Amino acid sequence: MSASPSVSGKSDAAAAESYDVAVVGAGFAGMYMLYKLRGLGLSVRVYEQGGDVGGTWYWNRYPGARCDVESMQYSFSFSDELQQEWDWSERYAPQPEILRYANHVADRFDLRRDIQLDTTVERAIFDESANAWSVTTSDGNTVSANYVVLATGCLSNARMPDIEGLQDFKGKLYHTGHWPHEPVDFSGQRVGVIGTGSSAIQSVPVIAAQASHLTVFQRTANFSIPARNAALTPEEREAIRAKYPEIRRFAREQARNGIYTELPDRGALDDGDNERRSKYESRWARGGLTFMSVYNNLALDKAANDTAADFVRDKIAEIVRDPDTAKLLQPTTHPIGTKRICIDTDYFATFNRPNVTLVDIKSHPIERVLPHAVRAGGRDYEVDALVLATGFDAMTGSVARIDIAGRNGQTLNQKWAEGPKTYLGLMSAGFPNLFIITGPGSPSVLSNMIVSIEQHVDWITEAIGWMRERDLVAIEADKDAEDKWVAHVNEVAHSTLYPQANSWYMGANIPGKPQIFMPYIGGVGAYRQICNDVAAKGYEGFAMSAAPARRAAALSWVSSFS
Ligand SMILES: Cc1cc2nc3c(=O)[nH]c(=O)nc-3n(C[C@H](O)[C@H](O)[C@H](O)COP(=O)(O)OP(=O)(O)OC[C@H]3O[C@@H](n4cnc5c(N)ncnc54)[C@H](O)[C@@H]3O)c2cc1C
Question: What atom of ligand 1 comes closest to residue 30's alpha carbon?
């Protein structure tokens, strides 16, 4: 159990309005941040706009929602007791179970007493003279905090599409990222799903099994690999638990994406056709995200990538009986893996059902939504319910909704107008004592997010602890270090095939959003090493300062990242 929070010498009256750290968001990141900061003896207040903890798993309750990193790995590693005692029921746990796990974590570590639910952080203004943030919440309260940690989530700002007539729709309207808490039953209904990304790929087979008719509106076909989900036996769980030290170490230090799997030692073109096909077949049969790590150059070499993409396109053609539908479902606009690869249970086979229609809205765009239909390509598709599986304003969307003003009153939205700029994805120059968890410029959404969350939280905790030992009160990313890091992130991205896709990694799903490749592709192991080296060199690339009285003796490290 974590230590009780102390209030760092502040009186009880002051404590109600003043905290060492304000944390925004109570998903996995915010909860673990609270746990670790308590360990330093700090006073912490966590604000969560939702009605309970869990973040992603609180909001995304759509049919078929589940994780796509295997649960025994998509789980916290910081407490061995926790990972030994929690029984995951399936290879990929469904959303209700992951939400139960989040609640279990909150209770087991007694986190709730410092989490304020149903409260949105609306504004955070940095007071340079006090080295503190003034944080205003939706309940009208303003508190002071020395540090603010944005644990606001990369996929937490549901994107409503701009479709004419949507507001006049008279049937039931849902967004996968804002699903109602009560069960939704589509039995006997004509349902439309707009979008064919990960959430649609998970929900379409489940909705099709209920609905009288399902119409799927597809703009871009996506690659998807079978999940091969199944119940976990006690023996399987025990075998993984026994290997946890090795699995977790590998995921943190060696894996590119934070997932334990074999590291490929050859490229796709190093094998002949038969050998390559048999390797793809075996990964297809195994199922899951590790399909992309059959070879070491699928993200780098277009010819190599084509072999994997062709394999999946052939599989789609084998599964889907109608050749025209199969052709529409075969992705051709981007190399495989350069958009978030999906994993599914019977997605492509669902289009063999007589009650499912696929509509190509790339060649026949949606013109408008009518009270009881969607009009696309001059044809009206009648629907009783409409599901928007249109994704998120990823990585920056939730941060941008908070009015954040740093040094000299500059807002973060002004600074990021041309795209997000951070040093290591952790801080942005001009915004002292403001940390971001899994922010743009870090591996984040390209990884098993819990691995990345734990790494960031540990790093931030150590940095704050290090500063307190030295009576330092402010930390800020150095502008030069930041510029070099942004250039490095870009350079690495452009040495791969990723920028060839119009993906949400690039902000391409949001009209008008600057198109910059946001996550860091260098891999979680390499990235962790960079962050550790920065810390070992006295937080190289960060400027730190003492309270004004001690400023004369302040330590400052402003050497740049190299
Ligand atoms: C459907 C779906 C499936 C996913 N599956 C996987 C997977 O299998 N593997 C994987 O690695 N990742 C997956 N992800 C990514 C997932 O978001 C992360 O794994 C992880 O849950 C993120 O945790 P978090 O705490 O950083 O953010 P979140 O879980 O998004 O939590 C952020 C919280 O901050 C709150 N918040 C935001 N702004 C404010 C504000 N201004 N004031 C107050 N509160 C605020 C939000 O309400 C939210 O509850 C998935 C995402 C989705 C949407």
Answer: 25
Q: Which segments of 205-325 are extended strands (E)?
A: 213-218, 224-226
pLDDT of 11 reads: 39
Model confidence at 356: pLDDT above 90: yes
Residue 396: CB within 6 Å of ligand 1? no
pLDDT at 514: 78
DSSP state of 16: T
Could you tell me the distance, in angstroms and rounded to a whole number, from the CA of residue 157 to the centre of ligand 1? Answer: 9
Chain centroid to CA 137: 24
pLDDT digits (tens, 9 = 90+) for 386-401: 999 999 988 898 999 9
Q: What distance in Å separates the CA atoms of residue 540 and residue 522, rounded to the nearest whole number?
A: 19
Cα–Cα distance measured from residue 485 to residue 128, given in angstroms and rounded to the nearest whole number? 25
Residue having the nearest C-alpha atom to atom 52 of ligand 1: 56
Average pLDDT over the chain, rounded to an integer:
93
167 three-state secondary structure: helix
Q: Best of 56, 101, 138, 154 to mutate for ligand 1, by most ligand atoms within 8 A of CB?
A: 56
* Ligand 1 binding pocket includes 21 (Cβ within 6 Å): no
Ligand 1 pocket, 94 CB below 6 A? Answer: no
pTM to 2 decimals? 0.94
